[in-house]
Amino acid sequence: MSVVPAGALPAGVLTAEEEAVAPRPAALGPRARLWPSLAAVYRAQLSRARVARIPLLFVATFQSVGIMILMRGVVDGGGEARAVVAGSSVLVVAFVALNLLAQYFGQLRASGGLDHYATLPVPPAAVVLGAAGAYASFTVPGTVVTAVFGCALFGLPLAHLWILGAVIPLAGAALAGLGAALGLLAPRPELATLLGQLGMSAALLLGVLPPERMPEAVRLARDLLPSTYGVEAFARTFAPHPDWAHVLGDLAVCGMVGVISLAVATWAYRRAAVR
User: Fold this and answer.
1) Does the pLDDT of residue 28 top 50, yes or no?
2) What is the DSSP letter of 155?
3) Distances in Å between the alpha carbon of 185 and those of 14, 124, 134, 260, 275?
4) What is the pTM of this model?
5) What is the reported pLDDT for 16?
6) If DSSP states are collapsed to H, E and C, what string results for 58-84?
7) What's the CA gap between 125 and 266, in Å, rounded?
8) What confidence tens digit (pLDDT) does each residue in 178-196 have?
């Protein structure tokens, strides 16, 4: 048996003694699960935007309340008043979940902030859902205040305002997914801001105005807006005897649209993160 000096071995080749003491590669840890990752991103986003919550809620609520006051001069009551109150309440959700989220993801992509999230051991869906949930959470006080003020202004009953507990998260998910997708797919942050503003304007014009006064072509466009079904579900509860089957049907459609829009936003996040 021949002995070869250690210095004569090629670089990168270890002797038997060195192989025995050489450290082995550490095993990779388990992949981060979706729900814990989602909760962590949600808390981080919530604390990050906490400073801007008061002015954000004020602007969104003041805008919707002002629209209802203006519409009070042309709408007396009945189905038109229900549409105005329901549309103005959901408009608070659209302002935050659609408009501001599109701006946030557009700026995040332009500034390279997506690289930070790409290095974290969290699934892409957790990033999108966590940010969407945090922004949608800010809309709860403003939506409730707008709905209560609208009911008092137009003389509508307050008995079924609990339905907002379903309308806000479902409409928020649909609009937040759309806003995140617009921000992530836009090539420039200025374009993301423009698309978010256009989306909120569509929610304003198609959601607040009574559908009975719209042309047929505009009604078809209204049916394509994700927040329409949340508005319809909320407006139906103001009737003396609400048709709960239709309310649940509208909420189900709103929920399905939310799942689709969040899935598109997750795909857009993966696409933007690898570029």
Assistant:
1) no
2) T
3) 50, 15, 21, 16, 12
4) 0.83
5) 53
6) HHHHHHHHHHHHHHCCCCCCHHHHHHH
7) 5
8) 999 999 999 899 999 999 9
Buried/exposed code over 66-102 (b: 16+ C-beta within 10 A; e: otherwise): ebbeebeeebeeeebbbbbbbbbbbbbbbbbbbbbbb
**The pLDDT of residue 104:** 87
d(Cα 101, Cα 180) in Å, to the nearest integer?
A: 6
pLDDT in tens, 122-149: 888 888 888 888 887 888 889 999 999 9
| 54-63, 199-208, 212-221: range with highest mean pLDDT | 199-208
Report the alpha-carbon angle 111-116-118, nearest 5.
115
Instruction: Find the DSSP H helices in the chain.
Output: 16-21, 34-48, 53-71, 78-93, 101-110, 113-119, 124-137, 139-154, 164-185, 189-208, 216-224, 228-236, 244-273
Reported as a pLDDT band with limits 50, 70 and 90, residue 32 is low
| 153 touches 68 (CB < 8 A) | yes
Q: How far apart are CA 275 and CA 271, in angstroms?
A: 7
Confidence at 29, pLDDT banded by 50, 70, 90: very low
State residue 116 phi and psi, 5-degree precision: -65, -50
Let me know: does 226 contact 261? Beta carbons within 8 Å.
yes
* Encoded tokens for 53: 């919550």
CA distances from 196 to 85, 178, 184, 203 (A): 23, 9, 12, 11
Give the span between the Cα atoms of 73 and 70, in whole angstroms.
Answer: 6
